[in-house]
């Protein structure tokens, strides 16, 4: 499969139409499912397009919804600019929600982009079995489409706990307004798709870099089993990844994350979203949404290294909280690799020095245009998932070596925890610092049942000392802050207007 996964056809494949009437003559010059899906190249291009929404989802969206909407990250209030409510509401846990519906724009983006990915995967899956293309390509393309559909539904069920279950191409608006699937129904479909993908996809060592692999499908499947507390099933999938010999930890934690033009899809990478620096429209700019504002050009260039730095104003987002910073043990090498500091001369705050997310700060050529990939699953998470699954089965001696592999790479001594409860807490701690700012924190708090307790205590700390949490003296903590601590978002209001099922 020679074509790059970052190639995107300029068509919305979910909108292609199909007809069962063989007497209907479709002009050969009209692009539709009747004329496009014929060759091996057509199907490769089609599955390429199903990857594309991942760039939107993880360029800005996911870390606002899962990291800033947790105790890991906050925003830097600029009272001259005013509040960016879609972002600050996430950090303050006061997202406007009524009757299970919200107007938050970031929630809407997550919903629509995941369904765009699902729609494109559905179009491939509807036609791939009948395609007259090489069997190896057919299996690979089908496996990728199944993986991406499963990944999209995993996002949706974790955000909303319910969503329309669409498994075939949608031809019109009435078909799009499907009934809401329950969490159990969505998870059952994700398990089916991911299981099928495991059997169809090749291993990482023989797959084109950046595409879904059997290991990535196993990681996704294990993730679902962890959510469902099916510990033995999760263990089976995770041990298969470990024993495959396809993955290992990078010796240096900072090297687990890509540079703008190099160090991508390493031995530690199980699956990551591909970005490409340059003018092709495949670049990212998520680093620029992870900075405190206002920042002058001469300050910004110390982080980005660009030839044309430009000042940025407004409200800074995804700023590491003091709570996260203090969670690192003394001597943990991950702390310096994850968090940097910068002093902003134009800040309206008494303390003008702010932390920022350093793990993605890689030099690149031009302002607001970089190519760092975004990690979805890393091998370190596989190890921590496996340790957790074993701990929950009370296989404590088996669990600790996997936990200690992660700690050893971080420069830390082996865990001193020995009881099931202590080891469980040790894994939670490692997940927080190892996977910080990788769109994991909210989901971890929800699946382990700790969201309300952790966020309520965190909210009390924010309200007690606003300056410590990046408010200027003129700023104020909203009166309704931390009044909407719920495990799931409301469904998007803009979609509710189009469906009778919300």
Short description:
With 502 residues, this protein is mainly alpha-helical.
Description of the structure:
The protein has 502 residues and is mainly alpha-helical. 45% of the residues lie in helices and 8% in strands. The protein has 19 helices and eleven strands. A three-stranded mixed β-sheet has the order 2-3-11. Strand 2 and strand 3 form a beta hairpin. Helix 15 packs parallel to helix 16. The longest helix is centred in the N-terminal third of the chain and has 26 residues. It is globular and about 65 Å long. The N terminus is likely disordered. Pfam families: SusD-like_3, SusD_RagB.
Key terms:
502 residues; mainly alpha; two-stranded antiparallel sheet; 19 helices; 8% strand; disordered N terminus; cell outer membrane; SusD_RagB_dom; TPR-like_helical_dom_sf
Low-confidence stretches: 1-31
Distance between the termini: 41 Å
Number of helices in the DSSP assignment:
19
What overall form do the CA principal axes indicate?
globular
What is the H-and-E element order?
Answer: HHHEHEEHHEHEHHHEHEHHEEEHHHHHEH
Report the average pLDDT across residues. Answer: 92
Note the beta-strand portion. Answer: 5-15%
The chain-level structural class is mainly alpha
Major β-sheet, in short?
A: 3 strands, mixed
Using only C-alpha atoms, the radius of gyration works out to 23 Å
- Strand runs, count: 11
Strand order of the largest sheet: 2-3-11
* Helical coverage, percent range: 40-55%
